[in-house]
Amino acid sequence: MYSELQKKLEERLRAVLRSQYQIEPEKIVIEQPPEVAFGEYALPLAFELARKLRKAPRKIAEEIVAALGSVEGFIAFEVAGAGYINARLDRGLAAHTVAAGGEVPAPEQPIHSLVEHTSINPNKAAHVGHLRNAILGDTFVRLLRAAGQKVDVQNYIDNTGVQVADVVVGLMHLEGLTLSSIEALMQRLAAEGRRIDYYCWDLYAKTSQWYEADPAQKEARRKLRLDTLHAIEHGGNETAEIAEIISTAVLRRHVETMLRLGIEYDLLPRESEILHLHFWDMAFEQLKDKGVLYFETEGKNKGCWVMTRPGAVRNSGTDRTGEPLREENAESSDASDGPDEDAKVIVRSNGTVTYVGKDIAYHLWKFGLLGRDFAYRRFFDYPNHTCWISAATGEPGHPHFGGAQAIYNVIDSRQSDPQANVIEALRGLGYTDQAAHYTHFSYEMVALTPRCALELGYEVSEEDRARPYIEVSGRKGFGVKADDLIDKLIAATRSEVDSRHPELATAEREAIAKAIAVGALRYFMLRYTRNTVIAFDFKDALSFEGETGPYLQYAVVRTRSIFRKAGITPDEALADAASIDAAPYLSGEGSEGIWEVWLRAAKTTLLLDQCIQTAEPAYLAKHAFQLAQDFSNFYRRHHILTEEDPARKKLLLATAAVTQRELIRSLSWLGIDAPEAM
């Protein structure tokens, strides 16, 4: 409703500006007044036009208001201050529209989006930092689907990287295990109820320390690491088989861990298939043919294939036929004759491909531009769909993957430069539309507060105790394992639920405790904007007060209690609101709080659009919290069940109903359940 009214107002304003001043503004800014008593919209338009029209802003505002006439959904336009235009909605009509609404309009042409998130190295248990990535990505998937987009969810698996190699080194050279004894180890761990990802967590840290433990052996151990990595990349040997078994087992644990938070995937594309199916070879030909890459013959990058930088002068190197390259910028006659030392290396002089090169190939596949596809096999069955994994040889019946129109990569901010390089490569290849629809959904890290680290039993120096946070390090084994965190949150909430609701069955109390714990964790990760470092703390995440998930869930529980006592359903309350004239109860003394709830509830769909346009779920989290706050203020001031005026009581019940509807909808988009009791 709110966005539709904005569109109507904007259309009318454009018509006025055309007829009055022959102006076609690129954008019309619509703001909110500091207080709802001043109106629902504030327009600074007159200030923007003052210089062009050479008139005082207030004079322009008066002329615009005089020309506006009536606009559907609005009852008045007023000039305020030095030239603001305040717009007042027809509150009664707006409330009826909100009560009858609730559905997100389907897009005329839904697009096919691909969201890649989580992407944990399959060498150890997931930790708290990984949860921010997965929760952000999963929430954005929910937002896109709510907006009517077709979305594929992918979790990229680097199963041939150095982190997996480190665990294999640990197994083979520190533990002295062979392929058969590793298989026996996994069977023994399963029989003892121990987890392979936890075992690898400790082994990875142990191996990382072993590399540096003996200075005399440092080079030899580093070479062992590199040889192991090359064996895994090449495949067809025992080392690669060990890497396959371990990485697949750890990956399955990751998928199970994320499912506890309601996070699911459609496809797990693996690095091994990108290598063995020669995706890079296909991409390499395109990049050379289009001149995006050239072979450097001078300077520090001699012998490498490097990527042309936009606007750079390329004065050395040869093309794929061996002919010398020289591209002069006519406006830069004093340009250096030397090589471009800052060019991005894509293929090293030893013939190995960099991370960026493989990523370019992968993203050409994502957009359906590579000319080659994975094979696929089933990996994990969810209640409503199957998660597939890439394979060299697969099985029939798989969905179609790739060929997306828009890509969102949830990858931390430290990868901004590689992500930018992929986008530049797409542009260089002529895929400008695809480059424009490639979004690096970046975020900052999750650390631990010193208090949290102490609670976990880590030694914390006096210097670290004075810091606001301590960085997580998987290589050092320092951090909170994701499953341990979830278990601790559930245990804490279970204790609270048991004390409040001993009358409920055990399974019901367990379900409520899990919903509260997951809600607390997901909201804690989503309430901060993506560019904010999160310092995780158990006390803050578990709080039932303030800006937390449980606070929002409790607001829904409170509305449910109202309807149980009133003997009416929320849908019936919203239907009853259509039979009254709501306007007298939405204005005047004591009524602004009621209207604020309706006004906030009307903005949910607007927030959906805003979150997608800005790739920032935190805005929806804040909106839901503010709606819960508005309802709490309303609930304290108005006695719904004892209200004697029948029409007013209907409106108060409808206010609780619209709050419940929009809170449940917002929470579902955030991946948070609203339990029946707390």
CATH class of the domain at 2-89: Alpha Beta
Distance between the termini: 32 Å
The helix-and-strand class reads alpha/beta
CATH domain fold name of the domain at 2-89: Gyrase A, domain 2
Shape: globular
Describe this structure in words.
The chain is an alpha/beta fold. 51% of the residues lie in helices and 10% in strands. The longest helix is centred in the last third of the chain and has 24 residues, at 646-669. Residues 313-335 have low confidence and may be disordered. Pfam families: Arg_tRNA_synt_N, DALR_1, tRNA-synt_1d. This is arginine--tRNA ligase.
List its traits:
4-stranded parallel sheet, 16 strands, 26 helices, 10% strand, alpha/beta, 3-stranded antiparallel sheet, Gyrase A, domain 2, 678 residues, globular
Short description:
Helices cover 51% and strands 10% of the residues. It is α/β, with parallel strands linked by helices and 678 residues long. The chain has a domain of 88 residues: Arginyl tRNA synthetase N-terminal domain (Gyrase A, domain 2, 2-Layer Sandwich), CATH 3.30.1360.70.
Any chance you could write out the topology, listing elements then pairs?
Elements: H1 2-21, E1 41-43, H2 45-53, H3 57-68, E2 74-80, E3 84-89, H4 91-100, E4 112-116, H5 128-146, E5 150-154, H6 162-174, H7 179-191, H8 196-213, H9 218-234, H10 238-259, E6 267-268, H11 271-276, H12 279-289, E7 293-295, E8 305-307, E9 344-347, H13 355-366, E10 375-381, E11 386-391, E12 406-410, H14 416-428, H15 432-436, E13 438-441, E14 446-448, H16 450-455, H17 462-465, E15 470-471, H18 482-500, H19 506-526, E16 534-536, H20 538-542, H21 549-566, H22 570-577, H23 592-601, H24 604-614, H25 618-637, H26 646-669
Helix pairs in contact: 2-3, 6-8, 6-9, 6-10, 9-10, 12-13, 13-14, 18-19, 21-25, 21-26, 22-26, 23-25, 23-26, 24-25, 25-26
